[in-house]
Amino acid sequence: MTDRHNLRTAMVLGASALAIGIASPAYAQAEQADTSGNQDIIVTAQFREQNLQDTPLAITAVTAETMEAKSQTNLAQVADSAPNVTLKPQGASFGPSIAVSIRGIGGADFNPAFEPGVGIYIDDVYYPQLTGAVFDLLDLERVEILRGPQGTLSGRNSEGGSIKMFTRKPEGSNTGYLEGTYGSRNRIGLRGGFDFKLTDDLSGRVSGVYKHQEGYVERYDFGCLYPAGGSATFKANDGTTQLVNPAGGIPSLRPQGSCLIDKLGEVGYQAIRGALRYNPSSDIDINLSAEYIHDSHTAAGEVLAATDVIDNPNTNIGVVPYDNRFICGRFCNFSSYSSPAITYYGVATPPEGQPLLATSNSDQSVYDGYNLAANFHFGLSDTFSIDNILAYQAWDTTFGVDDDLSPIPLSGGYNSLTHWNWSEELRLNAQLADNITAVLGGYYFKQRTDYYSYQDLRYLNVAPGVGLFPLQFIQPDETPAEAKAVFANVSWEITPGLTFDGGLRYTDESKEYRYFRLNPDGTINPYLDPVGAVDGAGAPGALTGLVATYQGQRWDWRAALNYRFSPDVMVYGSVATGFKGGGTNPRPFYASQAISFAPEVLTNYEVGVKADLFDRRLRMNVNAFYGKLSDLQIGVSVCPDGSTPCAALVNAGNAEEKGVEAEFTARPVDGLSIDGSISYLDFKYTKLDPSVSGTSLDDPLAGAPKWKWTLGAQYEIDAGSFGSITPRIDATYQGDIYTGFKYNGVPQNIDAYTIVNARLTWQNPDRDLSVSLEVTNLTDEYYYVTLFDLRGAGAGLDKAQPGRPREWAVSVKKSF
């Protein structure tokens, strides 16, 4: 399906939905508008409570009720509903992490040397890493997705925008809920929460979630399925189907009849959260919270999409090369997570005769996270108040890697990361006059991530007898970082209806990267660090013991004007800046490549209109933007000193982007709700450094679709004493996405797809008991979530993470 056809379909569906709303005679029933029209949503994007429709920002605000109605249980699903927002769980090579972008700007690499580009917050506490960021929507009140640079409001790394989650605060209501779910592939879900009163001023809340589901990509033992002497067909790179003896000398690891090793793409998530609130008056509000997350499951489900033949004695098993015979199918692979011990066959001695150890890794991904936060609000007078947000976070994760998805030992490894950070933000809020409010603040952040990686890469031979060097090594690298900021924001109602919002923020950030390139026995690897192996760690020219440093400062600013023509219509215009932080190259081949890169900067111009029409039965928010990007952080193959190979990020280009976004919610008749969004993004490089090999000014933007739309509808049917029945259907379209990889000079794309979800909910008359049947991916669309193509780098593999097939689930929820 082409982008043009899908755009036309979206416009027809949207126009039909609006026509239903406009033509409905229910608009004559003005007395029902307050109860059946669109309700106010309160957001805090500008450091104060505001109606969504009064905030001069492009914001998607999603309430807990909407998330439940759409069967959304994690952050990635919420992002799918927002225009120009892309948030996907990463493939197995990147562990339990995400790729995220807003308006095409963000991040996808979990390495702690890089910054995300989109700020993620929980209760105004910044979450600094992409690892572990596929959060469950545990006990949330709402999610705010701010599109466009938020440099003054959210600070560094909100260049593309920010995603803010807000949990429910304790109210002392002595109420709670329990929900149980059962569904496809033994899906089991339990979640619940209870709000309780301790004293008149002190209340608490506890909530928890448990989710488990079998994986949907089957992992098979290749030698078991195809024992020596057997035969099978496979499709060659030229498209022909051939009959071969696939097993050759590949041994079976399992007995015949039990060739299934595991099921990948499993769900295994548990979390518990506790909160205390001391609120004796409107002037004192103290909130303490603690959360523990345990996410343990098999690796992301991936399939081999294509291969280049890799045929060398360092990788072949029983003279079997790596080729298309290892393409298993739509939902299966042959990953072994092991490599045998060999004597490396190179071009000289050494590395001719270099012994390589056998390796064995697990297909399990394990993440444990701990979050502590204290939010204090003190009203000092009618004019001044103080907010202080103090937080500590820590997590650790381990995951194995088998990139080639086969028993052939091309590319594998093991990763272990430990991380901690703490932060404090202090704000002084001032009501300077009836029409002027201001916020002054300071922010401090400190973190450290230790990244232990074991790499076993054996594919680096272009032909038998012509080798490079064995890449079997460990790198226990360390990455401490620090950031400080001061900021000021003001809101001034110049005349009734006309308001100016402005802000300024200064940020000072620094980061170190401490390099180690060691053999598995702890000695310095002589192929990756020859100077260090001879002269010792820390010697001039040695990579091991070297510390690369980065330090940078940035001023960000914002100016916005909005004018309210009536209680129903507001227009705004704004100019704002934001940046993605700098850092250091975590993957140098030589000590000279341990270089730093500066922040990437965006200046964004935006106009928009927010309208509640027809007695609030139609809400329509539309905006257009134009952005100028400078100092783009781009990967290069030739480093600034002329050395190659090189895998560094450098500030090597500029670009422009423009687009439009629209969201609407219509309630044409009582009980019927229709909502949708559409977005368009156009990106173009305007400057590229000559060192950027393989990228041209005409290349598309990686990681974001040009077109995206969503459309959903639900209708609550009043069944009298039986309660109510609410059917709902949602459709989401995503256009082609360039993955950032090229093969033979041709950009590789994830093809466009449309996903349809449906839900049917029964609720009793008291609205404290509900039963829901949901079906996700109703049409059983086969599509890719991620694509990782390393054929152009000589690794021979092109693997993809297919989206989840059609699934069903039944949920029962009881409130008390």
Characterise the protein shown here.
The chain has 816 residues and is mostly beta strands. 6% of the residues lie in helices and 55% in strands. It has a 22-stranded antiparallel β-barrel. Strands 3-9-10-7-8 form a five-stranded mixed β-sheet. It has a three-stranded antiparallel β-sheet with strand order 4-5-6. A hairpin with a 2-residue loop joins strand 7 and strand 8 (125-127). The chain is globular. Mean pLDDT is 90; it is low at 1-35, 234-238, 240-245 and 462-467.
Question: What general form does the structure show?
Answer: globular
Any idea what the radius of gyration is? 28 Å
Strand content: over 45%
* Largest sheet: number of strands, sense, barrel closure: 22 strands, antiparallel, barrel
Please estimate the helix content: under 10%
Q: Termini, distance in Å?
A: 47 Å
Strands, total number: 53
Helices, by number, come to 6
